[in-house]
Design goal:
With 165 residues, this protein is an alpha+beta fold. The chain contains four helices and eleven strands. It comes from hydrothermal vent metagenome.
Length: 165
C-alpha cells in the first residue's frame, strides 16, 4: 500500500498534477489538495481525544454516525499549534477508501491549476523530506504548496481503519 502511494507521488508528471485543488491556509502558508480527495468541509465540532496516539492525532469525531479520526495538520507539520478560530475547519478526505478529517486554519478557494503554473517540488537535501509535496503552484503572485494528501496521511491510514472499525 505504501509503495503504491510512493509511486503515485514520485511518478507524478507535472501534466498529471494539473487540475482542481482545494486551497487552504496553515498560518501564513497556502496549501492545496486535489479536490477529488475531498468529501466535505465542516466546522470544528467536538473532538474526542484518544489516549496513546501521536500528538498530531487530535482525536475522533462522530459525523452522522460515522467515527472519523482527525489529524491536526499544523501539529503533523511541526508548526506551532494555535487555538481554533471561527475559520478553523475540518476537511474530510477519502484516502484509500478511508475517511480522515484534516484540521486546517482556513479554507481559501477551489483553484483550477494549469500545468504551466506548476513547478516541481524543491530538493531540500537528505535531511528534510519533501516526499509529500507534489509540486508548487504559482497563482498570480502567490505560491500554493500542492500536497499529496495520501502521502501526508499514509502512516495514519491503518490507524484510521482500526479506529473506524
Amino acid at each position: 500500500m505504501e509503495e503504491e502511494v510512493k509511486e503515485k507521488v514520485e511518478g507524478s508528471s507535472l501534466d498529471q498534477l494539473a487540475g482542481k485543488y482545494l486551497t487552504f491556509a496553515l498560518g501564513e502558508e497556502d496549501y492545496g489538495i486535489e479536490i477529488l480527495t475531498v468529501r466535505e468541509i465542516i466546522g470544528v465540532m467536538e473532538i474526542t481525544q484518544i489516549p496513546q496516539v501521536p500528538t498530531y492525532l487530535r482525536g475522533i469525531i462522530n459525523l452522522r454516525g460515522k467515527v472519523i479520526p482527525v489529524v491536526d495538520l499544523r501539529a503533523k507539520f511541526q508548526m506551532p499549534v494555535i487555538e481554533d478560530t471561527e475559520e478553523t475547519c475540518i476537511v474530510v478526505v477519502s484516502v484509500q477508501e478511508v475517511y480522515i478529517g484534516v484540521l486546517i486554519d482556513r479554507v481559501n478557494e477551489v483553484l483550477d491549476v494549469k500545468r504551466e503554473n506548476i513547478e516541481p517540488p524543491p530538493k531540500f537535501g537528505s535531511t528534510i523530506s519533501s516526499d509529500y509535496i507534489l509540486g508548487i503552484g504559482k497563482i498570480n503572485d502567490s505560491i500554493k504548496i500542492l500536497l499529496g494528501i495520501e502521502k501526508v496521511l499514509i502512516d495514519d491510514i491503518s490507524r484510521a481503519q482500526d479506529i473506524s472499525n
